Amino acid sequence: MNTMTNPNVSLPAEWRDFLALTKPKVMRLVVFTGLCGLLVAPQAINPVLGFTAILCIALGAGAAGALNQWYESDLDSKMKRTAGRPLPAGRMDRQSALHFGVGLAFFSVILMELATNMVAAAVLSASILFYVFIYTIWLKRRTPQNIVIGGAAGAFPPVIGWAAATGNVTLLPLLLFAIIFLWTPPHFWALSLFVKSDYANAGVPMLPVVAGERVTRHQIGLYTIPMAAVAIAPWALGLTGWVYGAAAIALNAVFAALAARVSLRRSIPGDGMKPEKQLFAFSILYLFLLFGALVLDHWTIGA
User: Fold this and answer.
1) Number of CB atoms found within 10 A of residue 209's CB
2) Burial of 115 by CB count in 10 Å (0-12 exposed, 13-18 middle, 19+ buried)?
3) Helix, coil or strand: residue 227
4) pLDDT, tens digit (0-9, with 9 covering 90-100), for 178-218
5) Cα–Cα distance between 53 and 164 in angstroms, integer?
6) Is the pLDDT assigned to residue 4 strictly greater than 60?
7) How is residue 22 annotated by DSSP?
8) Distance CA 36, CA 48 (A)
9) What are phi and psi for residue 90, nearest 5 degrees?
10) What is the Cα–Cα distance from 135 to 156, expressed in whole angstroms?
11) What sign does the CA torsion over 245, 250, 255, 260 have?
């Protein structure tokens, strides 16, 4: 039988398919923010152990991504941007994805505890469990608040990095957590505005599908305000130096301007939603530059 014409027959999975399960594009930001949390910690960590800690963060994120795709294979098959993933495309069976995700999760947590400490391992474990059980299984299909509450899952990495180096969690890593937590809604809602039909077809209750574009745009503007305040807070509270403070003010000014443009406009059919795409693209750059400035500030100012 020709497997290319029978979607119910799984082709033998390749290493590329297992790599795709880990969502490598998403993992880059996860690894980067985790690395920044580790580098700005007041305690230095052995480079080998530090590398191992970042590897564990990557593996944990990959495990969460694999388990997410295992559970959501039916949704992925209904959306254009995810239909080519290994499971909906028929290149892998669900059991293989489940075993891969669970095995990767256990390995990452155990290795983290052996290489660093129990606190870092516990936070890593919490991040995986939160993403899989709270966001993927509980929230994603049930409420338009899925991104708001579920945003915590992606906010753990800098806390994990900090904990790996210090064995504790203090105010600065909690603020870094809060930045990503508040950044997630405007970031994903900007995306959801120009892929609204995908979510609607899959039956995912994203905010633009349930409440409409106008409400979504207003929410983007509203969430940008506390996000900017929390992003500037580390400098305002004396936890960082002027390098981070200047970068935070400038980056948040640009983010707020783009968010205001999205919040105040009405989309016109066929206009390409350029402002929404600009905000989504900049939001990714924003987080890279903000956390990069944090590390630069730590190395130059030593605050």
Assistant:
1) 20
2) buried
3) helix
4) 999 999 999 999 999 988 888 888 888 889 999 999 999 99
5) 7
6) no
7) T
8) 16
9) 80, 15
10) 14
11) positive
